[in-house]
Amino acid sequence: MTEHQPAPPGGGWRHRLAAAAEFARRRLDGGYEVDEFGFDPELNAAVLMPAALALYRRWFKVQARGMDHIPGSGAALVVANHSGVLPLDAIMLQAGIFAEHPQSRNLRLLGADMVYSLPVLGPLARRSGHTRADPAEAQRLLAAGELVGVFPEGFKGIGKPFSERYRLQRFGRGGFARTAMQAGVPIIPCAIVGAEEIYPMIGDAKPVAKALRLPYFPLTPLFPWLGPVGAVPLPSKWIIEFCEPVAVGGPVADEPDEDEVGKLADHVRDVIQDKLDELVAERGPAFG
To answer: DSSP secondary structure string, 111-152?
Structure first.
């Protein structure tokens, strides 16, 4: 165990208390490192990921598959579907790779600009390894050999009505494909089943969304009618599966051909949609 890793489980409450005290001391003394993107690996491993894994293991009981498709080192781009009103699927994806990959890799997620404009959520997202969904930022992360994650559907995915569950929305203009081609890194398609049911969105209060400057304001069977209780995610059954990597060849010196970008983006989208259809049929009922 290195100096900055959390203590292993089963060491007794005194050991855990001592480890917590040492962690707090280092934090107060500034004895920790943050990378150029704001990522704090020690805080992520000791605090943020254990909190996320409580949901992952005990609430959603996520089944993760295809972890062998994620390289043990080096750059790759994980491309996944996005759903669920709130981006809990992003957190579960990150937690699953951290907990179940043999090298406990940190998934560096690309997020919407709005996240980083919020006073608490923005800094916390950066500390956990997220950064803005900007092509230049993605290229820097990939050039550094990082595992990067992206959700091409964006708000169209997490804000779609429940009636359109597990139907992929438009993948933007294929920016993720262009990024992978320019960096010469493999794309790992990923299908996430389970997030669609945590907050079944039956309506969108657009006047409220406009007043709050939000892309949507969800109405679910429980929210906002039950207040904070209605914001508790439903314990749906989850499956996260990583598909076989899609090779893109070597780095492209100039801008890649737009037709090739479109073909690659469409292929990845088709792979994810086919896998979603397969997993939804296999899983059966979302609850129980």
So the answer is: E-HHHHTSTTHHHHHHHTT-EE--HHHHHHHHHTT-EEEE-T
